[in-house]
Amino acid sequence: MIGRKALVAATGVVMLLFVLAHSFGALSVFTGPNGINAYAQALQNLGPLLLAFRAVMVFVLILHVTFAIMVTATNWKAKPDRYAVRRTRVATFAGETMLWSGLLLLAFIVCHILQFTLHATPDVVIRIDAQGRLDVFAMMRESLRLAPVSIAYLIAMSALFLHLFHGIQSVSQTIGLLNEKTKPMFQIAGITLSTLLLLGYGTIPLMILAGMGVFGK
Ligand code: HEM
Predict the structure, then answer these.
(1) Nearest to 122 by CA among 103, 138, 102, 146
(2) Which of 101, 153, 169, 174 has the smallest count of CB within 10 Å of its CB?
(3) With a 6 A CB cut-off, is 138 part of the ligand 1 pocket?
(4) Which domains does the chain have, with CATH numbers?
(5) What are phi and psi of 64, to 5 degrees?
């Protein structure tokens, strides 16, 4: 059981690092078309390395989801009267909804890859910029300008917030770092990181919808 939980924690940390790194890439949209198009082209230039990285991340995601569902199912079986337990347990909303925020994020990741990596959704506009690169700036702006797309992103970012809010504290417990002394520290780390990611990622659809800054030109 500990082995499974450790695997969920380790794969969760790997994906947290990805989400942090990816936020810098996505936020480069605020530097304008040149910044984000150059960044996306640099990624494409990695060639087979990018393919290998993608394969590893898909494997990590599958492990995380599979073992998280197994751990949750075992917990539910161990506590068949879990509603009675809930009444007496101090559990946060984020902790109680980990499975649902996780499944929502999984649905988001599938749609997001279909949209921005595979360009397979009808909202995607493909243009080539003056330097002959894929115009990722225009692609993001044209998609997120559609209110339903932006709203779906904001819902997914809220799920990411809830998932990380609880997940970061949960990891510290699994690896045995959580005690009365360190608890406030991990709580602050969880709240700070999840809030920063919510604000960072959330600003993109909001600014595009409002047509502000670089998106107003
Ligand atoms: C406003 C928020 C976001 C924006 C604007 C955004 C933008 C993008 C873009 C433009 C790409 C395609 C990159 C390329 O192929 O050149 C991409 C890929 C991707 N994004 Fe996001 N992203 C956002 C949030 C997220 C979040 C929260 C996650 C994870 C929970 C995520 C996971 C991914 C993954 C897994 C890929 C595929 C990476 C690849 O193609 O190798 N994204 N994103």
Answers:
(1) 146
(2) 174
(3) no
(4) 2-216 (1.20.1300)
(5) -60, -50
Q: With 0.70 as the threshold, say if the pTM is over it.
A: yes
Which residue lies with its CA nearest to atom 4 of ligand 1?
Answer: 26
Residue identifier of the C-alpha nearest atom 29 of ligand 1: 19
- Closest atom of ligand 1 relative to the 54 alpha carbon: 41
112 CA distance to ligand 1 middle (Å): 7
From residue 171, alpha-carbon distances to 10, 14, 151, 181 in Å are: 8, 12, 30, 16
Ligand 1 in contact with 116 (CB < 6 A)?
Answer: yes
CB 14 within 8 A of CB 60: yes
Does residue 101 contact residue 109 with C-beta atoms inside 8 Å? Answer: no
d(CA 17, CA 74): 28
Angle at which helices 2-27 and 48-78 pack, to 10 degrees? Answer: 140
* Any ligand 1 atom below 6 A from CB of 153: yes
Structural contact between residues 156 and 104, judged by C-beta atoms closer than 8 angstroms = yes
- For a substitution probing ligand 1, which of 116, 201, 206, 215 has the most ligand atoms within 8 Å of its CB? 116
pLDDT single digits (tens) 16-60: 999 999 999 999 999 999 999 999 999 999 999 999 999 999 999
| pLDDT tens-digit series, residues 144-188 | 999 999 999 999 999 999 999 999 888 888 877 777 788 888 888
Query: Which helix (H) or strand (E) segment is 32 a member of?
Result: none
